[in-house]
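Title: Comparing notes on inverse folding

I've been comparing how different people in this forum approach sequence design from structure. To keep things fair, I'm posting one structure and asking everyone to reply with a full sequence. Here's the target:
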């Protein structure tokens, strides 16, 4: 005879009882044990069984035998199943976290003033659209920083969720091109300006605005590139379209330590161009060199009033600054050189002369990422897949949670942010 433990343990479903009152012969025990351990098993205290047995018909019949244990326990099991179902229904009925609510940055502008806050938003408040997306990441772009701080007239209606780009997973779709589970990407189309954008855990969008997430990129990598990187690629494509090639001469990139400038520098250098980076932050010189810039110039060489023409140096340019910087670049661009203008970090005005256009035949190409046709977007993303060294993305990117967006927007406008900022919207 042997005494067997009387503790409670959960394993499988064949039930057996051991206690000093219920000693089994070694033989019976071994056979029970082998039966019990060959299938699911649950052991528990036999003294409890004695009291539970009172709810079982014929409880005294064959008491203590293995058959009795089995009969009592199987009936108790049925009883507990009913209890368990009832408890589950009761649990569901308890008011809990409302799954229709999600977190987002909301810009409001009313009698109380212009303000952005991280708030709870009800799904019912989402704008119209044929695709609902569970957002994974958005990027903090210069335009988002202007919208959040109210320093630029970016948000055109209120309340507004900022975020001009996002990557996420389709949850519901009435659009023929997308189904639940698809990984999608969005840049521009007035999202974050006229239509609620990516700085929230959910978005409802027009399917026509979306592009499938390129296979080369993880969601995080796609947002590391984001609208800034995609715009940089549009600039590179424009240079190529206007005949600028790696052997044409030097390409100057302004705001090189920022989002557009960083990706532009990395892509151009991978393509074999000789890149001259312009930055106002000497401490970031090593960073832009690591991205592929062959030479780094100080911003101060460009931000004063420009002469109509100056010594020609650039075969091409990618300018994110505007104002005097753009005027100086045009004045120093080679005969038939090409300047792409995509930004206004230094100002909206363009205090230039027509001299570079009529005497050197330069081309000034405007770059707009927001309403760019879908076919060109697809090309830009495909080219990013082949022409951006993914190892440079780690260098370019920093990551923040949704709760850090508002203070980081201030830092971005103060020129303190390097490269791209990815926002993990599920980190709040
Ligand atoms: N056209 C489009 O579709 C499109 C798309 C995306 C972005 N953009 C525009 O492109 C610009 C850059 O965007 P981003 O995302 O790269 O912004 P960002 O990451 O903040 O970079 C902007 C960079 O510009 C430089 N900068 C800032 N203030 C300056 C000033 N007062 N004078 C001269 N340089 C200054 C800084 O670079 P350094 O520290 O290296 O000097 C800064 O890092 C913005 O104006 C944005 O609105 C346009």
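Reply #1:
Here's my take.
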């Amino acid at each position: 005879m042997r005494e067997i433990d009387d503790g409670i343990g959960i394993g499988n479903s064949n039930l057996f009882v051991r206690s000093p009152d219920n000693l089994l012969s070694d033989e019976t025990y071994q056979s029970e044990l082998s039966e019990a351990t060959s299938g699911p098993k649950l052991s528990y205290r036999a003294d409890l069984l004695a009291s539970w047995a009172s709810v079982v018909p014929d409880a005294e019949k064959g008491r203590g035998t293995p058959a009795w244990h089995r009969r009592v326990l199987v009936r108790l099991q049925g009883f507990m199943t009913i209890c368990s179902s009832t408890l589950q229904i009761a649990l569901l009925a308890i008011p809990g976290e409302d799954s229709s609510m999600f977190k987002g940055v909301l810009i409001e502008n009313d009698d109380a003033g212009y303000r952005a806050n991280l708030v709870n938003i009800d799904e019912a408040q989402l704008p119209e659209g044929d695709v609902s997306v569970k957002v994974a990441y958005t990027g903090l772009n210069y335009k988002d920083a202007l919208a959040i701080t109210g320093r630029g007239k970016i948000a055109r209606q209120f309340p507004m969720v900022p975020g001009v780009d996002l990557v996420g997973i389709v949850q519901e779709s009435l659009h023929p091109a997308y189904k639940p589970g698809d990984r999608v990407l969005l840049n521009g189309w007035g999202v974050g300006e006229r239509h609620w954008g990516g700085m929230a855990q959910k978005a409802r969008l027009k399917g026509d605005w979306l592009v499938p997430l390129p296979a080369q990129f993880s969601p995080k990598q796609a947002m590391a590139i984001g609208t800034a990187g995609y715009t940089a690629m549009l600039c590179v494509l424009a240079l190529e379209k206007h005949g600028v090639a790696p052997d044409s001469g030097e390409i100057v990139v302004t705001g090189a330590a920022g989002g557009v400038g960083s990706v532009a520098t990395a892509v151009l250098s991978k393509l074999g161009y000789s890149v001259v980076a312009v930055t106002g932050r000497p401490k970031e010189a090593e960073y832009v060199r690591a991205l592929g810039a062959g030479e780094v110039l100080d911003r101060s060489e460009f931000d004063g009033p420009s002469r109509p023409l100056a010594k020609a140096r650039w075969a091409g340019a990618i300018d994110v600054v505007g104002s005097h910087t753009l005027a100086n670049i045009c004045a120093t661009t080679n005969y038939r050189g090409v300047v792409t203008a995509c930004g206004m970090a230094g100002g909206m005005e363009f205090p230039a002369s027509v001299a570079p256009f009529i005497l050197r035949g330069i081309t000034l190409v405007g770059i707009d990422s927001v309403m760019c046709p879908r076919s060109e977007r697809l090309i830009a993303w495909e080219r990013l897949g082949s022409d951006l060294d993914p190892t440079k993305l780690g260098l370019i990117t920093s990551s923040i949670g949704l709760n850090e967006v508002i203070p980081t927007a201030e830092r971005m406008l103060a020129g303190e942010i390097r490269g791209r900022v990815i926002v993990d919207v599920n980190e709040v």
